[in-house]
Amino acid sequence: MRGEVNPQGHVFSYFSPEERVPPSHPLRSIKAYADGALQSIRPVLNRMYSAIGRPSIPPERLLKSSLLMALYSVRSDRLFCETLDYNILFRWFLDMSLEEASFDASTFSKNRERLVEHEVALAFLDAVVREARRLALLSDEHFSVDGTLIEAWASMKSFQRKDGEGPGADAGGDVDFKGEKRSNDTHRSVTDPESRLLRKGPGKEAKLTFAAHALMDNRHGLVTDLSVTPSVGVTEPDAALTLLTRQRGKRLNPKTVGGDKGYHTRSFVAGLRSRGIKPHVARKAGHVTPGLDGRTSRSRGYQISQVIRKRIEQVFGWGKTIGGLRKTRVKGVARTQHLARLTGAAYNLLRMSRLCPVTG
């Protein structure tokens, strides 16, 4: 019998968003782990708000919204708020009823400064890492480090002379830079002054970028720490040592740290040795560095670290292709770091949901 389309909707619908989410949906495990992490940082969130005044959008909802934007490659805050109006799965993840109105995109921009000021993204990432450690998914001994570039939300048109001289822009905003040498010493982006011009390698075009640095656990490739710095002025080895210092503050004592040839420097190797860490970084041909000799590179542990350290590229690859970090949606180092840490937390939660899915 042929079915017929009935355009007349029901006056009342008696169902909850919970009923529409399949029991095996991966977001169920992600939601359980995210709610547990948010519960552990409630004291941090409580200190951000006054006890009086008009109630705001719960910060837990904003953080979980950022997770959804990373997991589902939502390109902007405005598009997410539009999708939230009719996406039952998103409403279930945010603990919103079907009758509750979606919030405005300006909610993100108004509250982002408060979240950045209190480093909520770092607290949330640390809480997710603690949850993974509770599940025995992390190793306290073997880590890898690496860095990548995040393109700034600024065009080359905005990279203008600091002294205000030079040709002005035409009606279309274009400036004729032909024959002019531009550098970070003489020029600055008027759109995002904290971004820096950098060429990734020979033959590559120069772009306005930030630098992201990640510390990865070697057991299952989870991100244990992440930071963002200007792409010029802070080297990858220096940023890696800062991340390792934070681990000691959490009473962790790494035994080995793997890295590519960019970390084969005297200062980085000496910094690892002073912390009691074996440097398992790739050696540059013809370079002799105290603390990184043939005895280290011939060991079985060194060879294993050199294989596993490449997994950190999966973190950056997922963050850029899925998580939206190829080009940042915000301006400045602090905001980009906030966004990157939430993306790292989303990556960890996705991995945890596959390694240890929540049942029941």
Can you tell me about this structure?
- There is one protein chain.
- With 360 residues, the protein is α/β, with parallel strands linked by helices.
- The protein contains 14 helices and eight strands.
- β7, α10 (266-274) and β8 form a beta-alpha-beta unit.
- The chain is globular and about 75 Å long.
- The model has no long low-confidence stretch (mean pLDDT 91).
| Assembly state of the chains shown | single chain
Largest sheet: 6 strands, mixed
Gap between N and C termini: 39 Å
Roughly what is the average pLDDT, rounded to an integer? 91
Kindly estimate the percentage of residues that lie in beta strands according to DSSP.
5-15%
Count every helix, treating DSSP H or I runs of 4 or more residues as helices: 14
**What structural class do the secondary elements suggest?**
alpha/beta
Approximate helicity band: 40-55%
SSE pattern, N- to C-terminal: HHHHHHHHEEEEEEHEHEHHHH
Described by the principal axes of the CA atoms, the overall outline is globular
Radius of gyration: 24 Å
**Poorly predicted ranges:** none
